[in-house]
From TrEMBL:
The keyword Iron applies. One of its GO terms (cellular component) is membrane. Its main location: membrane. It comes from Eruca vesicaria subsp. sativa (Garden rocket). This is Fatty acid desaturase domain-containing protein. Keywords: Fatty acid biosynthesis, Fatty acid metabolism, Iron, Lipid biosynthesis, Lipid metabolism, Membrane, Oxidoreductase, Transmembrane, Transmembrane helix.
């Protein structure tokens, strides 16, 4: 594995008093400012935990680029303009197809005021919740992290619902997410805000070649690749999406397409994307994780609990993200229900000892 060099730049105006140095590390990112603090950010939540506050920056093999870096407002995240995911690179056929699909969905969303009906609005609400839960419960907590087990028929049903959420097939989604956790806040992270807010929010999805080059293929999701059902979904995803759109058209014509495909997916896209961008920039921190992850209550409210992101990075295996009683986590409530009726088993939660270790100063 190629060794990466990390150059550190102090944020203080007394930069000349701070010694710069290099660290060689294949997962290169380093702490260069530490002080005791309560949770950081705009959002001072209930029960702020005193802790050491860390600032990290991932700058690789380019010490001159540190001079052009800047800090995202009201956060400790330093952006180093290193990676261009939209311009100044070659686009593969699949990158173009994905861009056209995402752009098309957004264009449909703009037509919403002209095709409003209450029945179309109800379809929007139902699909937003159903497909969204399938992504958070199945794609994320079940398949990506194996936080609990489901009977195969139910796992596949939830996975198919996630597929109709227009966020890709389960193998690709899980692979990208596992690489994010493995390389979080480094140059190999598929979507770190240290490489730009918009890259972490959306433009990274149009650069599949970068992930393949820096992280590797989908061998990190071999548990799904070995299952014929998931390989079938991966090969035929476009057919399923087209069939779903035709079904909506059959029942409600253009208004169902506009609200069921356009508005629903625009809202769901950006809800998911905000977990990758906003929840690594603004919010509160309850745990000493080696990344920028934050708990953000309003992102949690619109993503069925996914916004408790610092909790998630502290305990990736946990089926529950809202670890406090007041932290709304709709996905966890559904997992609890499935466990109560005997459908969810081996549900994983952090122990008190693990919490104590992660909360230590």
């Amino acid at each position: 594995m190629v060794s990466l060099s990390t150059t550190l730049k102090p944020l203080s105006p007394f930069s000349s008093l701070v010694k710069q140095h290099k660290i060689s590390n294949s997962n290169a990112f380093s702490t260069y400012r530490t002080h005791t603090s309560t949770n950081s950010g705009f959002f001072k939540g209930v029960g702020a935990v005193p802790q050491k506050k860390h600032t990290f920056v991932a700058v690789h093999e380019a010490p001159d680029e540190v001079d052009g870096s800047w800090r995202i407002p009201f956060s400790e995240v330093v952006v180093v303009r290193k990676r261009q995911a939209f311009w100044e690179r070659s686009w593969s056929y699949w990158d173009v197809c994905r861009f056209l699909k995402v752009a098309g969905v957004h264009l449909l969303g703009f037509l919403a005021p002209f095709y409003f009906s209450w029945s179309a609005f109800r379809v929007f609400l139902w699909l937003l919740v159903i497909n969204g839960i399938c992504i958070t419960l199945c794609y994320h907590r079940n398949l990506s992290h194996r936080s609990f087990d489901l009977p195969k028929w139910l796992e596949y049903l939830f996975a198919y619902g996630g597929l109709l959420g227009f966020q890709g097939d389960p193998i690709e989604w899980v692979s990208n997410h596992r690489y994010h956790h493995k390389h979080c806040e480094t140059e190999r992270d598929p979507h770190s805000p240290t490489q730009g807010f918009w890259l972490s929010h959306i433009t990274w999805i149009f650069d599949t070649g970068y992930i393949l080059k820096k992280c590797g293929g989908q061998e990190n999701a071999n548990d799904l690749v070995r299952q014929p059902f998931y390989k079938f979904l991966q090969r035929t995803i476009l057919l399923h999406e087209m069939a779903f759109a035709l079904l909506l058209y059959f029942f409600g014509r253009v208004p169902f397409i506009v609200w069921g495909i356009g508005v629903t997916n625009v809202v769901r896209y950006h809800g998911t994307f905000m977990v990758n961008s906003v929840c690594h920039i603004w919010g509160t921190r309850a745990w000493n994780t080696a990344d920028f992850s934050k708990n953000n209550w309003w992102v949690a409210a619109i993503t069925f609990g996914e916004g408790w992101h610092n909790n998630h990075h502290a305990f990736e295996f946990s089926a529950r993200h809202g670890l406090e009683w007041w932290q709304l986590d709709v996905t966890w409530y559904l997992i609890q229900f499935l466990e109560a009726v005997g459908l969810a088993t081996n549900v994983k939660l952090p122990s008190e000892a693990q919490k104590k270790t992660m909360a230590s100063i």
